[in-house]
Amino acid sequence: MQPIFIHTGKHFQRLELSEVLWVEALKDYILLYTNDTRYIVNRTMKEIEKKLMPYNFCRVHRSFIVNMSHISAIHSTSLMLGDQKEIPIGKMYRELLLDRVKKL
Predict the structure, then answer these.
(1) Per the confidence metrics, is the pTM higher than 0.85?
(2) What dihedral angle (degrees, nearest 10) is formed by the CA atoms of 40, 17, 74, 93?
(3) Element (H, E) at 100
(4) Which of 2, 97, 102, 104 has the most CB atoms at less than 10 Å from its CB?
(5) 34: Cβ–Cβ under 8 A, 6 or more apart, which residues?
(6) What is the rounded distance in angstroms from the CA atom of residue 92 to the CA atom of residue 88?
(7) 19 and 30 in contact (C-beta within 8 Å)?
(8) What is the rounded distance in angstroms from the CA atom of residue 80 to the CA atom of residue 74?
(9) CB within 8 Å of 10: residues ≥ 6 apart
(10) Which pLDDT value is given to residue 21?
(11) What is the pLDDT of residues 22-50, one digit of tens each?
């Protein structure tokens, strides 16, 4: 995956997309989560969704976009990232998610 640069106040920080676990909406901002850090960026979910979709990310809720490489389980109304973070799946996004995952 390609790196992105995010504005973190006084400079631009390089961030490998493979390190991003999920993105969460927070009013007019988004939060990008990695294993060690949370980055706050002044962008909308629609803007970041367009940029991330080609790189194995999927919107699963109006407030969440996940890196599909880190999904460990999908339940009826939520999914797990690793064994620590549970993310809700919105009704509108469930079918899209299931279409995008490779399942037997």
Answers:
(1) yes
(2) 70
(3) helix 91-100
(4) 97
(5) 15, 19, 20, 21
(6) 12
(7) no
(8) 6
(9) none
(10) 96
(11) 999 998 899 999 999 999 998 899 999 99
